[in-house]
Amino acid sequence: MNADELRKKVVRKEGKWKLLFPFLWGLSKLYCGAMAFRNFLYDAGFLKSFSSGLPIISVGNIVAGGAGKTPLTESIYLLLEEVGFSPAIVSRGYRGKEKGPAFAKPDPKRFGDEASLYALKKYRTVVSKEKVEGIKFAFKNGANVVILDDGFQHRKVTPKINIVAIDPFNPFGDGYCLPLGLLREPLKGLSRADCFVITRSNLVDTKRLESLELYLRTFKKPIFHAEQSFKFWVNQNFDRVEPPKGEIDVFCGIGNPGQFVEMLIRMGYTIRNLFIFQDHHEYTEEEIEKLKRLENPVTTEKDLIKLKGKGIKARAPVLRLEAYGLKEFILSNLEGTEKVKEEEIEGEFTPAGVSTFKG
């Protein structure tokens, strides 16, 4: 039983686990109170935020775990690049050793799995434990728009556009703050959002979607529906390959493995073996040896990049989010921002080519 499974048993007050409910409920209340007080200090001006003359687009969520934030970040990057901007993603490089600011490379141990994945796809990515310094570094080196990865709770930065990804399957983390639930802050914090993107909207039933949208409308902000799909498949070297055939053996260590599995089933795959690891899991040599013996392994891009060169002949689908209306909303908020031609960019930001994996 992993930590999230235990947490769910406590929330549902199952068996002996209900004894932990009062303790975790108390911790949850303390956490919510601390975050609410922190937000008050920023809102009242006691704590200052960094703002830039150039636009910053924050992509985040209000819960811990997977909400489709990574493919949403990629989609925004690609749409900005497509219309002529020079975007850069600024990431903390979770679980990576690099303090930065530095340009990310495909090295998960140094830069973290998400930033390494962005870099492998030739998305210009800056890793910095201090995100303000990362933003300054990106602008100094040629970016004219920054996408701040996981930036909603990062109150040290005032973004021009604050986008919140909402997972329709568990949008509000069981209704409790951490550690009992998954909320990173009280729900009233959603009032800071400039818009909401309901990810995986094509995978959820209409009634659930309507109920969620009804609540989000109370914040009087635009709501966009994003459909998630597999655009193509890659192998362990991140070369495009044909989709797997027959029964598959699935393993992954991501924030929301259930939705990944659900998409595979909806595509008609029969899952023979399923191995779920913790989010951002670092695979041991013993686990790698076991995974090598799988007949038809399938995993996620985030897992695949950590296993690159390890001899596991796995395939991974490349996810894309299509958020209808979001492009127009973003571009309308970027009017007046000068587009920089690629050939005019010097130094580290000169691309070897165009971004890959566009699908």
From TrEMBL:
<dbReference type="GO" id="GO:0009245">
    <property type="term" value="P:lipid A biosynthetic process"/>
</dbReference>
<comment type="similarity">
    <text>Belongs to the LpxK family.</text>
</comment>
<keyword id="KW-0441">Lipid A biosynthesis</keyword>
<dbReference type="GO" id="GO:0005886">
    <property type="term" value="C:plasma membrane"/>
</dbReference>
<dbReference type="InterPro" id="IPR003758">
    <property type="entry name" value="LpxK"/>
</dbReference>
<keyword id="KW-0443">Lipid metabolism</keyword>
<keyword id="KW-0547">Nucleotide-binding</keyword>
<keyword id="KW-0067">ATP-binding</keyword>
<dbReference type="GO" id="GO:0009244">
    <property type="term" value="P:lipopolysaccharide core region biosynthetic process"/>
</dbReference>
<comment type="function">
    <text>Transfers the gamma-phosphate of ATP to the 4'-position of a tetraacyldisaccharide 1-phosphate intermediate (termed DS-1-P) to form tetraacyldisaccharide 1,4'-bis-phosphate (lipid IVA).</text>
</comment>
<protein>
    <recommendedName>
        <fullName>Tetraacyldisaccharide 4'-kinase</fullName>
        <ecNumber>2.7.1.130</ecNumber>
    </recommendedName>
</protein>
<keyword id="KW-0812">Transmembrane</keyword>
<dbReference type="GO" id="GO:0009029">
    <property type="term" value="F:lipid-A 4'-kinase activity"/>
</dbReference>
<feature type="binding site">
    <location>
        <begin position="63"/>
        <end position="70"/>
    </location>
    <ligand>
        <name>ATP</name>
    </ligand>
</feature>
<dbReference type="GO" id="GO:0005524">
    <property type="term" value="F:ATP binding"/>
</dbReference>
<feature type="transmembrane region" description="Helical">
    <location>
        <begin position="20"/>
        <end position="41"/>
    </location>
</feature>
<comment type="pathway">
    <text>Glycolipid biosynthesis; lipid IV(A) biosynthesis; lipid IV(A) from (3R)-3-hydroxytetradecanoyl-[acyl-carrier-protein] and UDP-N-acetyl-alpha-D-glucosamine: step 6/6.</text>
</comment>
<dbReference type="InterPro" id="IPR027417">
    <property type="entry name" value="P-loop_NTPase"/>
</dbReference>
<keyword id="KW-1133">Transmembrane helix</keyword>
<dbReference type="Pfam" id="PF02606">
    <property type="entry name" value="LpxK"/>
</dbReference>
<keyword id="KW-0418">Kinase</keyword>
<keyword id="KW-0472">Membrane</keyword>
<keyword id="KW-0808">Transferase</keyword>
<keyword id="KW-0444">Lipid biosynthesis</keyword>
